[in-house]
Amino acid sequence: MKNVIGMVNFHSSPEIPPLTDQRALGSTSFLGRYAFCDFALSNLCNSEISTVGLLVKEHQRSILKHLGSLDFWLTNTKIGKTVVMYNEEAHFSPETNTDLNNIRVNDWLIYDSPASIIVIVPAHLVISLDLRPYIKEHIEKQRKVTFIAKPIDNPSEGYLGSYLFETDEEGNVLSAKRNDGSSHTPALASLGIFIVNRSVLFDAVHDPAAIRARMDVESKLLEVGLIEKRGYVVSRYEGFARYIDSFQHYMDYSLSFLQKKDADEIFKKNWPIYTLTHDSIPAVYGEEARVQNSYVANGAIIEGTVINSIISRKVTIAKGAVVRDSIIFSSARIEQGAKVSNALIDKHAVISAGHTIKGSKNAPIYLKQGGRL
Amino acid sequence: MILAGGKGTRLLALTRKTAKPAVSYGGKYRIIDFPLSNCANSGINHVGVLTQYESSELNSYIGNGKNWGLNGVNALTSVLSPKETEEGSSWYKGTADAIYQNLDWLDSIAPEYVLILSGDHIYCQTFDAMLERHISSKAELTISVIEVPWEEASRFGILEVDKDDMVTAFKEKPKNPKSNLASMGIYIFTYKSLKSMLIADAKDPESDHDFGKNIIPGMLEAGRRIAVHRFIGYWRDVGTLTSLHEANMDLLLSGDPGTNIYTVQGNLHIYSEDTLDYPQYLGPRANVSDCLINQGATILGSVNHCVISSGVVVEEGAECHNAVIMERAIIKKGAKIYDCVIAPDTVVEGDVRVNEERDGIVLYAKGRIYR
Which of A26, A33, A153, A310 has the maximal Cβ count within 10 Å? Predict the structure, then answer.
């Protein structure tokens, strides 16, 4: 689709400490093999959108480390391009580091392209979504902005911080307010994905009031939409999505993909999820290994027991070690006889021989990167 | 120059539509990943891959060498298949002829030395020490050799050497070997010498145009200097189904600690194709022990002492023992497989027993057993 620019928005990702202290949520490890932003990038690629901007807010190192050469998901590496968009001006005034300012200071990407439509997708949403039908509908119905939103049963249980929409029968936005978790009634929650016409986006990011108020792009577009009333439409998405909005949800949602029905919603035939390759060796299992209901990434070596867990690259689980209901990030080491349950062990951390780390389902424990117990 | 044209008939149905160097190995790799990674790790940036038998799959796999990093600045990876020229067209008639037909490619690179490798050997090493040996011994050819057990020496091309490890005789499969130094089919030639010998060999109507049969004996006869380089480490020529199976099982932790996947690689990476598989998943009733399993495999049943490739599904209630299960094979509920290689894209139905009598190593492909 030469008519469309895609942007992956790292600005709209929530902070979920302590996991995001050193990294962007979009580049945080998922299922031992992916980063969340792989879904956004793969959805754009599979939807044949070949010009992609990465709206990077901070933690560029962690993002660029994952994205590597920036071209591995491009179908044609000459025609397609991926550019990092970063707002250097915001370096000394972090409070101005909004996606709106980022797009404005990097608007050359839009100038350089004849595209008339821009699709912005959040970096942290787990979804396998073909954007083409939404773009087609957007064009046919001559809209200015299409917000893609999902009906949810209980806003207090998810999609915290995202907009909850009210619309008329045609989908025109009547109201939008941030989900603060107080409502328990079914609602239409923004996925943070929106399709916007070039000139509408251009006006929004150059609006002095919006710049002064440090607004984000979605808020500004909604503000304009509520005044203009026509052409700012919500499209419903009834399918599967996981919106990571807290550490607890990170754990719960990740482990829920151990169930086939959830995994099948994101791992679909003919919809590959691209990710960085590490040339790791296949996973190795020892003679005493016992592994059940788990994801295991290449490079892992498992000689102990792993139940209901996610094991990333180059993790070592020694003989006699037991890991349950936990997520182990890459290069972590669980030594002989150690026990880990309901925990997230970050990269390069070590659980020494014989030690126990035990959280509970509703209060998982976190061991920081390089930490040692 | 990697010789990758061989058919590998002793691998039965595995190589019916696939060249031997493209056969999968170790759950994740293809055999040719090893020589290509060895070149990359040695800092050799110009690689020609000579393909012939069932070449299209292999050619597209090699591509521009990107999977091995051989596509960078000043690097060149070329797939060299037989071609039509002014003189006509011909298949590669032998290993020496394959190089001869690509002398123009070599001339365009103008190398000082040419390393000639087989595309179907499994080993991890750099060629730095071998090149040093070639230069310091002032040889025109250096052959990498490995010490084999004396009782097996009569199966190999055997080199006899003097006290300086310079070759005095070469005997193909000798009945009464006087040495146990076997040629590994890895050669470093000084390019000038190689070129002149290949041109002379091409004019000889009696020649089989083969390095082992013609070029090396011819060089010895003419009194040219040939050195050996002694290789120490893991090296396998997986010519048969049994040796392919064995080389896979060597990688497991339960075997000889000197040959498992960690010690075989040492500090060297083996690079390979990046597959877009979903993560490897082991089910609630999976039973996995002593295995090597690649990403993209789904294990719901029981697997013991197995090497399993991406896209493989072992259903709940299936049992696999001492098996090499290649890409995308499906082992259905109730199936039991023993001591075997399961070919890529094979479905083993639930009522099938593969080699239950455990008689040697068998291949299961397209619904039948090959021995």
Answer: A26
